[in-house]
């Protein structure tokens, strides 16, 4: 199976793959998930629909991989020596404009996930689980350094807290998420919940 996937992917260069993913995200922002078609992606990217299906299997996998590709780097690679530094560094990887665009995109996709089990499955396998594994390594380093107790009950909810802040900023405050907001949230909510002083 891995050999087949590698063979399929070898036909598209990394640069071309990045172009395709960028086009998919642009289309998602323009029309939303439900109205996005493989025909539209093929036309926008001057690709054949057969190539898209051969490479990605279908719309859910293509969309999930496009969103994953858009993430700025590997979370687990960030290591400043402290969890506070790591969380601040991760927050600072996207400027406020990109964060606002991505928040709007993710809101639309979260709504689509509820009506599309295939998209939910693709998101879990290709985006959520890999991101959780990467983020878990960041948090485990904090435990190994002695910053956070291994039995701290908040450890299981760090991602929930961060995603919640990002996702509900617009809903509650009618404002987009920003670096300043998320950093203040990390210091006021996440780190105290883990028993890490911020002063």
Automatic annotation (TrEMBL):
GO molecular function ontology, one term from the record = DNA-binding transcription factor activity
Which stretches hold the DNA-binding feature?
A: 37-56
- Give every HTH tetR-type domain span: 14-74
Q: Which UniProt keywords apply?
A: DNA-binding, Transcription, Transcription regulation
Question: What name does UniProt use for this protein?
Answer: AcrR family transcriptional regulator
InterPro entries per the record?
A: Homeodomain-like_sf (IPR009057), HTH-type_TetR-like_transc_reg (IPR050109), HTH_TetR (IPR001647), Tet_transcr_reg_TetR-rel_C_sf (IPR036271), TetR_C (IPR011075)
Species name: Streptomyces violarus
Kindly give the Pfam families that the UniProt entry links to this protein: TetR_C_11 (PF16859), TetR_N (PF00440)
Q: Which domain of life is it from?
A: Bacteria
Q: Where is the signal peptide?
A: none
């Amino acid at each position: 199976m891995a050999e087949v996937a590698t063979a399929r992917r070898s036909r598209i260069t990394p640069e071309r793959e990045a172009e395709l993913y960028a086009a998919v995200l642009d289309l998602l922002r323009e029309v939303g998930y439900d109205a996005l078609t493989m025909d539209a992606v093929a036309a926008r990217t001057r690709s054949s629909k057969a190539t898209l299906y051969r490479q990605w299997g279908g719309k859910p996998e293509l969309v999930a991989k496009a969103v994953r590709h858009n993430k700025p780097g590997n979370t687990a690679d960030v290591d400043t020596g402290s969890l506070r530094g790591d969380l601040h560094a991760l927050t600072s990887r996207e400027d406020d404009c990109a964060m606002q665009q991505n928040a709007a995109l993710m809101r639309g996709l979260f709504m689509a996930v509820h009506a599309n089990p295939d998209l939910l499955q693709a998101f879990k396998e290709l985006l959520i689980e890999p991101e959780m594994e990467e983020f878990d390594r960041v948090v485990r380093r904090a435990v190994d350094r002695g910053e956070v107790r291994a039995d701290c009950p908040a450890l299981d909810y760090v991602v929930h807290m961060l995603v919640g802040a990002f996702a509900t900023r617009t809903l509650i405050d009618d404002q987009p998420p920003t670096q300043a907001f998320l950093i203040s949230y990390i210091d006021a909510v996440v780190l105290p919940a883990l028993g890490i002083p911020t002063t």
